[in-house]
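Much of what follows relies on a compact textual record of a protein's fold. Think of the row as the fold of the chain written in a discrete alphabet. An example makes this concrete, so a full record is given next.


***
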Amino acid sequence: MPCVFWLKMDNVKVFMDRLNRILFLVTIGGLSAFGPFVTDMYLPALPSLPEAFSTTPFWVQMSMSVCMIGLAAGQIFIGPLSDKYGRRKPLLASMWMFVIASLACVFATNIYFFISMRFLQGVAGAGGIVLSRSIPSDKYSGMELAKFLALVAAVHSIAPVAAPIAGGMTLVFADWRFVFAILFLLGIVLLMLSYRLGESLEVSRRSTLSAVAIFKLYKNVLLDKVALFYILQQGAMAIILFVYISASPYIFQNIYGLSAVSFSGVFALNAAGIGLGAMLSSKFRRRRTAVVFSGVGTFVAAILEAYLISSGAGVFAVESVIFAMMFMFGSAAPAAAAIVLDSQRKNAGTAAALLGSLPFFLGSLAVSMTGVGSVVHAFAATIVVGGFLGAALSLIARHYQKIYGPSIL
């Protein structure tokens, strides 16, 4: 009888360990998805917001650019501070700010207040993004870290699939304010899940620098050629991603005449491409190979896409190449992140902040360009520039990786 009892207890323990691991993965994946949810969910509503706020498309685009700046700037501060004070407190503070800012967006009555709340949403969401990378780096390393980040990327890929679909379906039955009500509820769920996470960074491993001097840790990351060029490569690739995100509602809805729901389906398909690419990433024997495949492949696809959309090609051809670009983008992200975090284990929060913030900074600049002049021409020119930079930097990063990094990477 005692043997049966202990056997049952062991089964319960195994079940609870497995459940906790799943919840940890879902929580980290959800935190990493703040970028897509904050930027993608209200995309189907963008064409209708100028009338809702009695403003111009420029100011509506600014609401996205400012949010992305918040996502970038927040990571710059939260990353180093989490290396000093631990991960849990910055995470909970970020989640509370996100919940409050999302609720404020629901009741926004003018574009300027709406833009300011979008900025706070971005700053708050930054905490989830940077800590979703640094928390796993506290627990895992090497190929184990790469595999976990690939799993997170697969969970993360659900967000850009679900976000525009949820936004598009919401607009069928309600107005844009309900989109932010859903974001508010999502924030509540992630806040509760965040309370379940224990502190992952032990006191003995935290930086002893002052709150001001802690930002000097960025110097350590920038002097690491391996980390630096992989971070720059991901920033260049993000130019393509965010210009696509910003321009796609106008391209597919205004030019090709798709409804908000149909556009959501196309956007979800492309997001699924990112997830498929992330799953492919773990199949490469060396992570640097995945980054080169992504960079060079995306550049070739960007040239073809620029030609197709500028020449007025059909929606099927335009969408097919966009899907290919998103697939290749997804194949590099977890590989590059694992290399950077492995190279900067002592400054993981700071490295994760740069890795996450630079794409949003560059993306916000690229997005602002789509609000000036022809959306089609701005989109075509920007993706070619981003593709060229991504390809060149992937080859440079690979060069330094072979010199300074472990051969298995």
